[in-house]
Specification:
four-stranded antiparallel beta sheet; 16 strands; mainly beta
Length: 170
């Protein structure tokens, strides 16, 4: 498995996966373990962590073979989790925009958009859509002006982030 480690202030974050916690935060100078996300025990995948802020809480979005989740930057607590099964390899980095998280993977799985909300101290992840318009295997997807651009295992695609509608394909 492979990812791009994330440096956030004094922390270096990575996703070893497994029963001790999917995500780990290390002191970037010493390598000392600062925390592990023990409430999330998904296996490691290839997708890199992304910094986000939802409901005024800084967090890391992690995309694994089984779910997409938000981990509290301060202490590694699991803030929210949405089941999202991948197949063979989950590679593309999640895209965060406003209070939305977009994920995609290949092998015929497709893409999902989740809306992240906070009521009191509780976060929820509600699926907005699921489709196969963007089934990106490698290389990732970019977001420009509300449109996602990427490859879907068959062709190049431009897709509306919030609706999932195809704008064009080639």
């Amino acid at each position: 498995y492979s990812e791009s480690p994330l440096v956030d202030g004094d922390k270096l974050l990575c996703t070893p996966g497994g029963s001790k916690g999917t995500v780990v935060a290390l002191n970037k100078q010493s390598g000392e373990v600062l925390w592990r996300a023990k409430e999330l025990t998904d296996s490691a995948a290839y997708a890199s962590l992304v910094i986000a802020e939802f409901g005024g809480v800084r967090q890391y979005v992690v995309f694994t073979d089984a779910s997409v989740a938000g981990i509290a930057a301060a202490d590694g607590r699991l803030l929210w989790k949405a089941p999202r099964k991948g197949r063979t390899a989950v590679i593309p980095t999640p895209i965060v925009s406003e209070n939305f998280v977009f994920v995609t993977s290949g092998y015929g799985v497709g893409c999902n958009l989740f809306k992240i909300s906070k009521a009191g101290d509780t976060f929820t992840a509600e699926q907005v859509y699921e489709n196969k318009n963007m089934a990106n295997h490698h290389g990732g997807v970019v977001l420009i002006d509300g449109h996602l651009y990427g490859h879907n295992d068959r062709e190049w695609v431009c897709q509306n982030l919030k609706t999932g509608e195809i704008i064009w394909r080639d």
